[in-house]
Amino acid sequence: VLRLFLAAARPLYAGARVVCPCCGGRFRAFVPYRIGGAHDSICPRCGSLRRTRLLLLYLRERTNLFQDALRVLHVAPEAGLQDLLRAVPTLDYTSIDLDSPIAMHAMDVTDLRYEDHRFDVILCSHVLEHVIDDRKAMREFFRVLRPGGWAIIQSPVRRDSGTTVEDPTVVSPRDRARLFGQPDHVRLYGRDYVERLADAGFMVTVDRYAEETDEDTLARHGLRRSMHAVYLCAKPSTTA
Ligand SMILES: [Zn+2]
Question: pLDDT, tens digit, for every residue of 88-100?
Answer without folding.
Answer: 999 999 999 999 9
